[in-house]
Amino acid sequence: MSRSRTLLLALVGTLAYLGLAVLGRGGFMAFFSQPPLVALTLVLFVLSGLALFTRGNLSSGVREDRRNRWVLPVFGIIGLLSAFLPAYTDRLDVWTFGGDGLRWLGVFLFAVGGALRMWPVFVLGNRFSGLVAIQPGHELVTDGIYGMIRHPSYLGLMVASIGWALAFRSGVGLALVALTLPPLLARIQAEEALLRTEFGEEYEAYCARTSRLIPGLY
């Protein structure tokens, strides 16, 4: 897929995600009457704007593990539910907890998680693909944040997802975050298996001194 099509897809996805949240919350007035949700929207568009300056792609590169593609529609379905249901349950006040303080905590976590998710995309450039694939000229990055954890982008995704759920005070949103874990871990295992075949002992040594997601824990 070309870069222009990838960026267009990202823009459409952002607008659709926000649109589902606005719909779930009961319309523009209901959504934007909450200052934390206004801030959440601004963070969402800032992160989307930053994505325009990255070189991430959906290229299958020189070698791809196509067996892992099943996680993409799963992520898509969970993503659509996460866009709509937290806002919807917030409107109905079902499975909700906390108040504005929790909403602002959610906005903060969404911003931090989003930044953490974007950071590796800038670091890896065109080696960052939405597919499990080895790209042309692929090199193993082991410094910076990659010197501590091997999958910072996925950690950022989880933190941002938790933040989104908390911005709507949504227990359902947190349950959807939990449902994201099995396909995410399957994705991590597929990536690490492919990198082992590409980099061999160098990657094994790298794994021995780093954590997958949380330093010192996992």
From TrEMBL:
The portions of this protein that span the membrane are 37-58, 70-89, 101-119, 154-179
Q: Where in the cell is it found?
A: Membrane
> What is the protein name stated in its UniProt record?
Isoprenylcysteine carboxylmethyltransferase family protein
Keyword annotations of the record: Membrane, Methyltransferase, Transferase, Transmembrane, Transmembrane helix
- Molecular function terms, GO-annotated: protein C-terminal S-isoprenylcysteine carboxyl O-methyltransferase activity
What Pfam families does the entry give? Answer: ICMT
Q: Where is the signal peptide?
A: none
Output the GO biological process annotations, alphabetical, semicolon-separated. Answer: methylation
Q: Can you name a GO cellular component term? A: membrane
Q: Per UniProt, what is the membrane topology? A: Multi-pass membrane protein
Main localisation: membrane
Q: Which InterPro entries match?
A: ICMT_MeTrfase (IPR007269), Metal_cation-efflux_comp (IPR052527)
Name the species this protein comes from: Metapseudomonas lalkuanensis
